[in-house]
Write a structure and sequence with these properties.
The structure is a homodimer. By secondary structure, chain A is of the alpha+beta class. The first copy, chain A, has one domain: Glutamine Phosphoribosylpyrophosphate, subunit 1, domain 1 (4-Layer Sandwich). Chain A has helices at 53-63, 83-101, 157-163, 170-187, 218-237, and strands spanning 3-9, 12-17, 20-22, 28-30, 34-39, 43-51, 114-122, 128-132, 138-140, 147-151, 195-201, 209-213. The radius of gyration of chain A is 19 Å and the shape is globular. The relative contact order of chain A is 0.20. Chains A and B meet through helix 3, helix 4 and helix 5 of A and helix 3, helix 4 and helix 5 of B.
Chain lengths: 244, 244
Amino acid sequence: MTYCVGLKIDRGLVFMSDTRTNAGIDSISTFRKMHVWEEPGERVIVLMSAGNLATTQSVISMLDERTKAVSERAPTLLEMPSMYQTARLVGGVVKDVIANSAPVGQKADSYFNASFILGGQIKGTEPRLFMIYPEGNFIESSDDTPFFQVGETKYGKPIIVRTYDKAMSFAETVKLLLVSFDSTLKSNLSVGLPLDLLFYQKDAFKVGMKKRIAQDDPYYRTISDGWSNALKQAFKALPDFPES
Amino acid sequence: MTYCVGLKIDRGLVFMSDTRTNAGIDSISTFRKMHVWEEPGERVIVLMSAGNLATTQSVISMLDERTKAVSERAPTLLEMPSMYQTARLVGGVVKDVIANSAPVGQKADSYFNASFILGGQIKGTEPRLFMIYPEGNFIESSDDTPFFQVGETKYGKPIIVRTYDKAMSFAETVKLLLVSFDSTLKSNLSVGLPLDLLFYQKDAFKVGMKKRIAQDDPYYRTISDGWSNALKQAFKALPDFPES
């Protein structure tokens, strides 16, 4: 499995993904699940993937136009007039790749399935965030649902539901995502370090920060240990059940 | 879906289950998922179920011997010499009921599936806790894994993993379970109030406390609101991501 979260805040977009892939419990590897296309001053596009690795790698390769010679590549992805068109393009590629893998046409429940979180901004438009389904269709985030998760989403959802605030700073949002990822890492072996973090500041039209967070990252250690302790303290501070 | 947790502590056993069942999102009902058989001074047996309601109700009815006239019922369940034998009996009934529902023999992935948490104590033996699978086989809790969850287990797992301590009092354990259930309730519509709570004190051979916790339960409100606030405080207290 996988765990990826894309989150929209007033100041921009924040993305985090793990890097573990597994084909059975005895076949574990590390692969990047966060992919970025950038045209400084013009657009930034981030795509995170969960699901069948052959499918997700194919989709990325197709979007990169790796079927062409290196000199001839000019990804159509970077020519779309809007993020909505970008999502349509990605959705179409996803659908094609899955259809080509399935032996007799696409099945919604196929093992070749993959889901994607797409976010970014194109000059002249607002930052936007989408979730793209294996069927190629997609939904966009809104004020009511300002974040998307793919993969092992459940362990880390309660903390996001409880503490998200669209006025958050990037620094706070990264903290929130690390807590959410740490809860997931502690509960599920199929999600693993290192983590990829990216944030994009609204109207910057370039990647704000991109960082790989490994086991020994001092801030990650602070959050992981600190959150365990903080939870225990918070738990202790609540009144016990009145037995009588 | 469902959410049930059975937890073993030094002082005994604690059980909590929700009461929501749904057959599609537009067909929601409330059913008790916690069932108790008690022979004061002799044994206490608690069974919680998740899965197909027809299956789980059949299993309970069979164990209650409801195929017989009321006057002739003397549940075999109350005559087993050990909790291990009790788990075998329940597992056998589960397997039979599922096999009878499936059109052409049992499939592991059947829609008629159900899982159970069984716990209790019989005079002369220790309190024991089991998890029973749809196939009828089962596992027992240990010091390493002192709790079992069935149903929507993921949202509420991190807090149990982090704060469980076998030396906990009943009052603290109930607090822990309520926090775990509250996280699940806030994240998943298929788990719903009221909750059933039961605790069994080691060597008491009678139910210690059995209570239904509804939306307006003052202690539940305290925990639900208090935990949200405590989490926010704990989160605030952690250092933000150093952006530089």
